[in-house]
Amino acid sequence: MKNKQLYFAMLMVGMALGTAWAIRGQFGHEHGAAWAGAIGSLSVLLVAKRADWYAKVFAATLAGAIGWGLGGLASYGIVVGYGRGIEFVNVYYGLLMLFVIGGLYGFVGGGLFGLALENSAAKPVKWHEVIIEMVVGAIVFYFFMIEEFEWRMTPPRSEMWAACFGSAVALTWYLVRNKHYSALRVAVFTGLGGGFGFGFGNFLQVLGHVSGIKFNFWNVMEYSLGFFGGLGMTYGTLTSHWEKTDDAQPKSKVWFPLLMVVLVIPFIVWDQSFDLDRLQGIFSKLALAEDSPVLVGVQWTSIGLVVAFTAFWWVRFYQNKPNPLAYSANEIYTLFLGHWGLYVMFSLLVTGAFMSGYRIEQYLYIVNWVIVALLIGKAQPEFSAKPLAPKKWGVNFGILLVVFAFLTLILINSHDELKNAQKRFGVPPPVEEAK
Description:
Keywords: Membrane, Transmembrane, Transmembrane helix. This protein is mainly α.
């Protein structure tokens, strides 16, 4: 029964983060990933059912959002293309590199989220040190790995994955040095889930394309990354030891993360995604004229939603609350569904799915939202602390290498070379001798 509750909680978070990450496909980049990471973080807090964590809901959600968002620096379009080839070395390389990229998303996202949960008066997190060390780590690793050693993953695209890797190394050193072992455990399992989810998602995406079924299988790949990342994030959290922290927070510590989560990140997504040129390109598929009032309506509706939701959250979670602030499970549930629901609405608006059924996957987001809304309150997991086990993690990583090799064999025997396939390795064509 205990394990069933754990698995059920993992499923709920996996569905929430998987859906949010699929929605992120419409927005991309760091801002889209940050919003999805916020939703995943909120869902973990909701299933954990700890009042002391509710008090720090905005700080923990912002930390998770920033961590997941940092991975958005990495380019992966060409890496996905390696999986569409027919040579073992190229396809296997593609799946492994997607494991690295997805792992970085999850490791940093889970690590910062866990660090926020461990933060307390007795054991405060020195956030200025974390930020400085991660920035320095990003610069140093990028310089040596890319500029000096030229260990390029995805030429000629951006190699910012190396900067993310440097940040992850610096974060790891901070966690180990300051004995934040629970946060480290969350980072490891979230990274494992995100990495596997990305590689496995590419496997599903390629097979889906080969099947000939008309569906957005790229979105399936994105859902897979978020789903397995959510599984790992939940497992790492619920199987770690956490000291009890304060059940309330002073207002001075809440207003900034609150506005970052509910206003700044959504506004950046709006600013970068709802410009008129982009909307004209999307809605031209729906036979709308470039000067159609619908486009302006979409712009104003989307920004109006941001303002309205921000005002509601500000009044509900800050203005009408006594100092210090404390929150209930019902309030966290409302915040989770509302913030996630706004992301769903953004997706329906920016794709035009609110007026056309040409993007059927958009309605599956609503289905996932409803299922999780109805069931997530039934999660009653118990915390069961488990120790760090680096040797076991190493064995599991070895198993993953074998699994990806098996998936590679399936892919290269399932199709001829596909459109947009990329080739990282291979014998160069022979040079003709001078006549």
